[in-house]
Specification:
- Strands 6, 7, 8, 9, 10, 11, 12, 13, 14 and 15 form a ten-stranded mixed sheet that branches. Strands 1-24-25-17 form a four-stranded parallel sheet, with helices on both faces. Strands 5-4-16-18 form a four-stranded antiparallel sheet.
- It contains 31 helices and 33 strands.
- It is 42% helix and 17% strand.
- The chain is elongated.
- With 970 residues, it is α/β, with parallel strands linked by helices.
- The structure holds zinc ion (3 copies).
- One zinc ion binds next to α31.
Length: 970
């Protein structure tokens, strides 16, 4: 804008130069902590919790992060998204109380505490775990506050609070009452030396040498006759390979791979079946000729049930089953399956309803129940030799060697593990058709992004069972009594609820300290054996059960909240975790799904799409991001990420975020600096009286705002980010704000011309500031501090702006004046008429924008030819031919302008940002522009340059002031 020209008189002081204290550059290192402290002082966490009470509730139920370690970028991304959802819903007028939560029980904390203090047990261990969790809760709480997240931080739910622990038991009692709880065998990794089950974190893999044996399972007569009628001279056997001979007595089936080619080979005494792809190596190994007899597809076993005779147990037949877990590149493609002795074996067993047979003592010896009976009392190590010897005697062993392979070992004693079936507690997913009910419920839950629907369905569909028990200390006890004589369990709803009442007062520690006598119901006898001696169950509940029943423990118990939630929002990995445990338990306890919407987001990855991990060294912490971008920048990044994909943190992405943020901030700053003398209450110009271009800008704001509100309602924050970015860049900076600069700086400070533009500037600033508030929460608070006179509450307690629908107001006027229609009109007709009116208005402006670009192109050519140096030195003569495309629209718009008491030439002068415009009535010597039918001539403006506004005019003024400026100054 105008600078002083030293030789001449200065008019600088007579201009309305923009001014504001709002800083040019965001100083987030200084400002962010100040804002967090201020919110704390203002008690904004509590205020937002209670705000809009009585209005429609919106409940986002916070999935509890695990209380160990610092928050990482994934946590930050998640919490920020939740915060954007809540702030925007609140600004849409809803009551949005948010209670944050923490998941506190479970192995990772117990493991960490035990690592430091291996000897802690019982109460002391639990106290240490509580302290550990509390320490991390306060650290994480601090870190979440740094993200500008507004939740009720003073009143979180903790799964380790005694109330929550009691509610966990009450929820469990419901499952007991409704018949979902069963206790049965499950294979678990077991250390015979330490006599304990191991969690996956406690298993170490080391190389170990084991026997590798090939032996036969003979098909029974019926199977052979049906499936292999041409092979009747000798027995037909499946050749099976194993490296754990001790588990052979526990075998309950032989598995083949479905839809796979197998061959029958001839040996001296028997036909053997092996996978075709392995036949050559097996014949070499066995030293037999490749006596390939027949081939067949394994699916014949799907059509006909086949049985094989157990090689160690006479008259005992096991089924031949098809299963995808069988591989065809190793062994024989005929697999030994013992559901009581391995994790995959177990799964296959559960799927096929096989017995989970595991007569093994905690120290790794065969019990009295083992068949063959010769094994009773032997250790499984000795069992290895016995099995090999017996197979040899029975002529079932075709080949024996040894193998070195990676094998699971105990983290404490480093001994080899076995898999052993132990009694575990389960939630029966087939009870009352639970799984199908859950699958149906998913159809009624809005899944965002939509594609996640199938993924969630698949994880629920694929779930075989839910084992609820863990053999650990730090968790809610399974409050059952176990018969000392026969190991049967006693449990019922009343008993569990009784215990829950004590736990509510004393925490889970109650279960450890209460004596069995005071616990036992009067006259209790074992329902299985009549025994009267009982012990307390020592297992605890799976932590997924703890957090999974938060809908019951939090939403149902806290009257400030509501059930079901409107939204659960977590990373997509929670489809198999919290979403699932929450859905299943809510379908049992409340018999309705616990949420209406499930929104998921991806993982945080680096520029190469690699998941962030310490070992790759590509982890970026929230602190580093804040350091670089500021809190608002980090939040803007979270909003910009498309939640259907992964969240990329890369140099390019971060630069783009900074660029967009700078653009938005600068635009707002420009607006603020030009309304410092504008009092919205007094100086606002009503829409009807505004200048035409101002009306248009206000309408544009209305349209953009509608889009923004729609995007917020759809939780489409990526869209919000893009709309804001392009609105600031395209519609404001390089169009409207550019056009009105002259009026803002030059016109009389309180005159109509300037006030009309300021009215629009204020509306844009107010709408924009509120629209960015859910995302750039600190900047919005600062901006509103500057432009809201007498601001009495935080921007986060205000509602989104409601820009005026100018076209509607305009149409309303015309209806009232009877211009638009003559007869009575129905509301539906009115809507249609309104829509077509709005559309025609937009078309007019679009047509005019095309005229503008064609003329600006021509001015640019004149500039290149040095006819003018600056667009303000330009005089443009324009002629619009009737045949020009959309000429009728342009004429109609120019007519509107005249009807608005504006001069068309002045309008165009401002619109093109030139000094002089002549609206010609003939094309004469004019040149056709790039727009067919639009003619123009561009030349240097006549007269002299006004030292105040830099526009050129023919003037008599001594100081060369243009007429306009002369009037204002003198
Ligand atoms: Zn061990
Ligand atoms: Zn008993
Ligand atoms: Zn002037």
């Amino acid at each position: 804008m105008p600078e002083q020209e030293s030789s001449k008189k200065s008019f600088k002081d007579t201009l309305n130069l923009p001014h504001t204290d709002f800083p040019i550059r965001a100083d987030h290192k200084k400002d962010d902590p100040v804002m967090i402290e201020r919110w704390e002082k203002e008690n904004l966490y509590e205020k937002t919790f209670n705000h809009n009470k009585g209005q429609e509730k919106f409940i986002l139920h916070d999935g509890p992060p695990y209380a160990n370690g610092h928050t990482h970028i994934g946590h930050a991304y998640n919490k920020i998204l939740k915060d954007i959802v809540c702030k925007s819903q609140r600004m849409l007028g809803k009551h949005v109380p948010v209670t944050p939560g923490w998941d506190c029980h479970g192995l990772p904390i117990e493991y960490a505490v035990k690592k430091e203090n291996p000897h802690l047990e019982g109460d002391a261990l639990k106290k240490a775990c509580r302290d550990y969790a509390n320490k991390w809760i306060s650290i994480q709480k601090y870190e979440f506050k740094q993200l500008g997240v507004l939740m009720d931080w003073e009143n979180p739910y903790l799964t380790m609070s005694s109330e929550y622990e009691a509610n966990t038991l009450k929820a469990f009692a419901e499952l007991v009452e409704k018949g979902y709880i069963e206790r049965k065998n499950k294979s678990v990794p077991w250390c015979p030396a330490c006599q304990t089950v191991l969690a996956s974190a406690e298993i170490e893999y080391q190389d170990r040498k084991d026997p590798s044996i090939y032996f036969t399972f003979m098909l029974n007569d019926a199977t052979r006759k049906t499936l292999f009628p041409t092979l009747q001279d000798k027995p037909v056997s499946l050749l099976v390979w194993t490296t754990t001979p001790w588990s052979l007595p526990l075998n309950r089936s032989v598995l083949l791979r479905p839809n796979t080619e197998y061959v029958v080979l001839l040996t001296n005494d028997t036909y053997i079946i092996v996978g075709q792809s392995l036949a050559a190596s097996i014949t070499t190994m066995l030293g037999i000729e490749n006596n390939h007899c027949i081939s067949f597809n394994s699916n014949i076993f799907a059509e006909t049930k086949g049985y094989a005779i157990h090689p160690l147990i006479d008259n005992y037949e096991v089924p031949v089953l098809l299963d995808d877990s069988v591989l065809t590149d190793d062994g024989t493609a005929c697999v030994h399956n013992a559901p009581g002795a391995g994790p995959i074996d177990y799964e296959v067993g559960v799927k096929n309803n096989l017995e989970v047979y595991s007569p093994i003592t905690p120290s790794g010896h065969y019990t009295q129940d083992i068949v063959p009976a010769e094994l009773v009392g032997l250790s499984v190590n000795d069992g290895q030799g016995w099995v090999i010897k017996t197979l040899l005697e029975r002529n079932k062993l075709l080949f024996k060697t040894s193998i070195k392979h990676s094998y699971p070992h105990c983290w404490r004693c480093h001994g080899g593990l076995i898999f052993r079936a132990t009694k575990q507690w389960f939630c029966d997913l087939s009870k009352n058709d639970l799984k199908n009910k859950a699958l149906n419920a998913i159809n009624n839950i809005t899944m965002l992004p939509q594609a996640s629907h199938n993924r969630f369905e698949a994880t629920v569909e694929g779930r075989l069972e839910w084992c609820l028990s863990r053999q650990r200390a730090w968790g809610v006890p399974i409050t059952a009594l176990i018969c000392n004589t026969c190991d049967a369990a006693f449990i019922n709803k009343e008993f569990v609820n009784d215990v829950a009442q004590h736990v509510e007062k004393n925490g889970i520690e109650y279960w450890d300290t209460v004596s069995i006598d005071s616990l036992m119901p009067q006259g209790l006898t074992c329902s299985q054996c009549g025994g009267v001696g009982f012990s307390k169950e020592t297992d605890i509940l799976d932590v997924w059960f703890d957090s999974g029943i938060s809908h019951f423990a939090v939403l149902q118990q806290n009257s400030a909240l509501a059930y079901p939630a409107d939204m659960y929002l977590e990373g997509k990995d929670q489809h198999r975790g919290w979403f699932q445990s929450s859905l299943l338990t809510s379908m049992i306890i409340e018999e309705t799904p616990c949420t209406k919407t499930i929104m998921t987001h991806g993982f945080t990855v680096d520029a190469h799409g690699r998941k962030m991990s310490k070992s790759v060294g590509n982890v970026v912490s929230p602190t580093e991001m804040i350091e670089r971008l500021g809190t608002d920048g980090l939040r803007l990044w979270a909003a910009s990420v498309d939640n259907a994909g992964d969240a990329v943190v890369s140099e390019i992405v971060l630069k783009n975020i900074q660029e967009v943020f700078r653009k938005i901030r600068n635009t707002c700053r420009f607006l603020i600096s030009n309304i410092n003398d504008f009092d919205a209450a007094q100086d606002t110009i009503p829409v009807e009286r505004m200048k035409t271009v101002d009306k248009y800008a206000l309408q544009e704001l209305y349209e953009i705002h509608q889009e923004l509100m729609f995007a917020y309602q759809q939780y489409d924050f990526t869209r919000v980010f893009h709309i804001l970015g392009s609105y600031c860049a395209a519609d404001l900076s390089s169009f409207y704000l550019d056009i009105i600069k002259d009026r803002l700086y030059v016109e009389k400070h309180d005159g109509f011309e300037r006030r009309s533009a300021q009215t629009v500037c204020f509306a844009i600033l107010d709408a924009m500031t509120k629209a960015i508030a859910p995302i750039a929460s600190f900047a919005a608070e600062q901006l509103s501090d500057h432009y809201q006179k007498n601001k009495d509450q935080s921007i986060h307690l205000q509602q989104f702006a409601q820009p005026i629908d100018v076209w509607e107001t305009y149409a309303q006027c015309m209806w009232e004046k009877g211009v638009m229609h003559r007869t009575e009109i129905t509301p539906a007709q009115k809507t249609v008429e309104m829509a077509s009116f709005a559309q025609s208005q937009m078309q007019k402006w679009q047509a005019l924008k095309n005229v503008r670009s064609a003329l600006l192109k021509m001015i640019e050519v004149a500039r290149e030819q040095s006819i003018v140096k600056h667009s303000l030195e330009t005089r443009v003569t324009v002629y619009i031919d009737q045949n020009m495309q959309n000429a009728d629209l342009i004429f109609s718009l120019l007519e509107d302008i005249e009807n608005n008491r504006e001069n068309v030439e002045s309008f165009l002068k401002e619109y093109l940002i030139v000094s002089q415009v002549v609206y010609a009535t003939q094309k004469d010597s004019l040149q056709e522009t790039s727009l067919k039918g639009l003619y123009a001539h561009v030349e240097h403006a006549h007269g002299v340059k006004c030292p105040r506004c830099w526009q050129w005019s023919v003037t008599e003024d001594n100081d060369h002031l243009c007429q306009r400026c002369a009037k204002i100054v003198k």
